[in-house]
Fold these 2 entries.
Entry 1:
Amino acid sequence: MVNVEIFEVGPRDGLQNETAVIGVAEKVALVNCLSRAGFNRIEAASFVSPKWVPQMASSGEVMAGITRAERVGYWALTPNMKGYAAARAAGCDGVAVFAAASEGFSRANLNCSVAESLERFGPVLEAAKADGVPVRGYVSVVTDCPFDGAVAPGDVARVAGALMAMGCVEVSLGETLGRGVPERVDAMLAAVLAEVPAARLAGHFHDTSGRALENIEVALERGLRVFDAAVGGLGGCPYAPGAAGNVATEAVAARLEALGYAHGLNMDVIAEAAGMARAMRAGAARPGMVQGGAS
Ligand code: HMG
Ligand code: MG
């Protein structure tokens, strides 16, 4: 059976968009539960400006609070050297830089142009190489941008190729808005695969239009074997108006099984984690149940 890795991004991409602060203890409990599910990698934190994404301000405390499972790597977003230093101090096993395929999204998400963002990532890649820390590169808005509209496949390929050339171990293709249809995802992949081999790519699909699983199938046919997902289908990007949740981990696992792929996850633990994630969102939505920051 062919193995496909699900890279769990729930604790980061799933929660970053919640406006009411979720307590550290709840976040730690979610990561600890996910650590028992069989993932190789969990995106547990994000060392970005707390002014830009307040929900992730407790990332250092979350990393300090979790009980690490030996075979799990705990990853974090690091948009610049300040974020990288914080991720190192927190003991993250891998970090991710994140660029966009459109200028509009780059400005909204990183407050700089695509070229400037790549320049900013240079020192992060250099430091990580010296420290032996693997770096993932995201490309956002790979089919559609909320500000600039349809994105040309060539623009995605150019940014993906640049991230790979800078030393990223993997490039994750972010369908940020979740509006991409299989035909356009396929055309985007065809262009990217001319620059980056399938073995170094991951698919990161949001599920706004309910087509994420179809898009994953297209990517599987193109040879991709890593997919990002969030338990309970949580998520959305704070700088992508209209973006709904990430595709749900449990849905991806079920589809992979139906297609005859192995994923190695314990579905009982996944169901437990999905329940916790949904309860966190429901709690955050009801002011009376919101927990304060650190706990
Ligand atoms: P800026 O305002 O241009 O940056 O933001 P700056 O360098 O001028 O710094 C402004 C303030 O932020 C300063 O503090 C810095 O110290 C601080 P002040 O002096 O005002 O008190 N700062 C930081 N603090 C903590 N950690 C840091 C950091 N860097 C600066 N790392 C910046 C530029 C990149 C910082 C900002 O735009 C930012 O944090 N953006 C992050 C946005 C974000 O996290 N978006 C969501 C994640 S991306 C995503 O979800 C997409 C993805 O899922 C894939 C997909 O679906 O497409 C990955
Ligand atoms: Mg995302």
Entry 2:
Amino acid sequence: MMTNKKVVLGITGGIAAYKAAELVRLLVKAGVDVQVVMTEAACQFITPVTMQALSGKPVFTGMWDSSIANGMPHIELSRQADAILIAPASADFLAKLVHGRADDLLSTLCLARDCPLLVAPAMNKQMWENPATQRNIAQLIDDGITILGPDSGEQACGEIGLGRMLEAEQLLAELNAFFTPKLLSGKRLLITAGATLEMIDPVRAITNLSSGKMGYALAKVAVDMGATVTLISGATSINPPPNVFNIIATSADNMYQAVMKNIAMQDIFIGVAAVADYAPIETSTKKIKKSEHSLTLHLTKTKDILADVASLPNPPFCVGFAAESEDLIEYASQKRIAKKLPLIIANEAISALGNDDNQVTLIDENGTHALSRAPKTEVAQLILTHIASMHISRLS
Ligand code: C5P
């Protein structure tokens, strides 16, 4: 979402300025054209040379820079930008923004901007909690400025509390979310993710290699696209994305109950979880002892969550995933019809499960559409864009 975006990164005076160096590196890596502007105080914490080397561009530090043809960097820099991000934003700089002060290049260009402004506050916890700062933050929100963070934790001064600037990775994710078109605004999504765990006895289970990464990537991107997301997580070892309602349901039966309890009012249901097809008829309460020969487990077929949701009288827009080791497109197409799904995502089982990237083919009534192999977050963006357009065209 950020490739070729132009961002002015403003750095003000604070110890968190060191995190801005990593942020520039990540932004450049994500394809962002970064123009760094530093206040005089910021130059006390980190040098313009560092930021120039990382951004690949000269850094602006004052009003009177002659390298801009018309001599008006405060106008030119914001006219070329898709957004201005101030990170770190000191308490003093926030106060300046509130009052529309324009006594250095960064404050002047913020006042003269015609693009969105995002600020990542960084300060001591008492400074953050001070009613003056809180009044300023409320005013900035009222003025349409996006506040990112701050985080809580140990501070450079040794105190512990709210006021730490978000980490560079978090700021990158926030900026990415900011630039993501809100294609799913107002929509409710229910997503199942991960493997299920069917207990044989208290210490043994039947499971599979699904990591939950694809489902979690879809949940994260759906939030970025403006949706309200309920995530039903099976067995995974990864952290759920922020701002989703996460419900843990590790067995196929628990997942079935959790989905059915939450399905009313959902606009879209995506079954990404690798749900066990069979589960032990009974779970032994005691650890099963080794026998001399073989062990026979009696399994029963689990309920098909996706097929049952798609067969509800008024179903949400249902999307399935098909993981196969051979004849992928054929099997996936058959599943789409059998489960009554408008869309199914086919992926090759062995290369998809557990990996950070995926190669998928979208199959709907118009045929197949293969996407290139890409990181799961990028694949999620393309899948959700397709879902949004199919869902909207069905409503109209
Ligand atoms: O039939 P198969 O298991 O290959 O179908 C895969 C799709 O169906 C996935 O979207 C999966 O989440 C869903 N599914 C389900 N409940 C099951 C089995 C599969 O929701 N019991």
